[in-house]
Amino acid sequence: MDSQTGPPSAGTCRSRACVRKDPPSGPNTGPAGPLGGSRPYSPCQGSQSPGGQVPPSHPQVAALLERYRRQFARQALQPVGQALVTLVGERAAVRTRETNFGNLLADLLCREFAQDIALINSGQIRATIPAGTVTLGQVLSALPFDSSVVTLRITGRQLLAALENSARFLPEASGRFLQLSGLQVIYDLSMPPGSRVQAVAVKGKPLDPSGRYFIVTDAFLADGGDGYTMFRQASQRIDHQVPIRDVLLKAFRRGPLTAIRDHRIQIVSASAALSPLAP
Description:
Low-confidence stretches: 1-50, 270-279
Structural class: alpha+beta
CATH class of the domain at 79-268: Alpha Beta
Strand order of the largest sheet: 7-4-11-6-12
CATH superfamily of the domain at 79-268: 5'-Nucleotidase, C-terminal domain
Mean pLDDT: 82
Number of strands: 13
Number of helices: 7
Distance between the termini: 65 Å
Radius of gyration: 21 Å
Oligomer: single chain
Strand content: 15-25%
């Protein structure tokens, strides 16, 4: 029996077996990465031996790790394309409102996988990409997670429930806030969580609660992460085994990228009048 008192913390290792305790927001939480952005949650960083002491590093292992570190550092500087505008991915922006980076990623998913609707949890996006030459390291810092792209067939009611979940914690920043494509949404923050979606248009037509829609998202959301449990009830699922990051890299290599905010997400309050969605 383990003599440790209290529950193990994230990253505690017992007798060589790492006990993982995921952070509250799922895989989209992690410390700062080596390239200046955040990196996927790694539970065994700083792990100790059963005796409570950090084991000494082996010279050959240390040399090998240093070799790979330098190799990765060189690869991170490789240019992958051009951004004609700054792609906004700061936490305070991307987790509370529509951003041009979120629009770009969602639009790319729709185009690459031939679907009308794309949903990306903003917790996927961890950094801004400045205008100009873009390096591999910048893309890795902005999109550090490997969660693969998934296509789902869901009902209109499930889609509406997902949009309500997206706005649940607004105006506070939350990684569950969705960046999207193929939809126009009006949220009213004067309403309680669960009743904030005031209007939804799908490709210019009102959402049909009894209708069926194909969406493209990622495996984290498809598995119910960040409260998106409704996606577990999808009638069809296709796992494409392609990270969102790879879709962006492919697009950069095709040519320069630009992106805009087009007000596909509108956030109002009691003091603002609701305007009808454009056809």
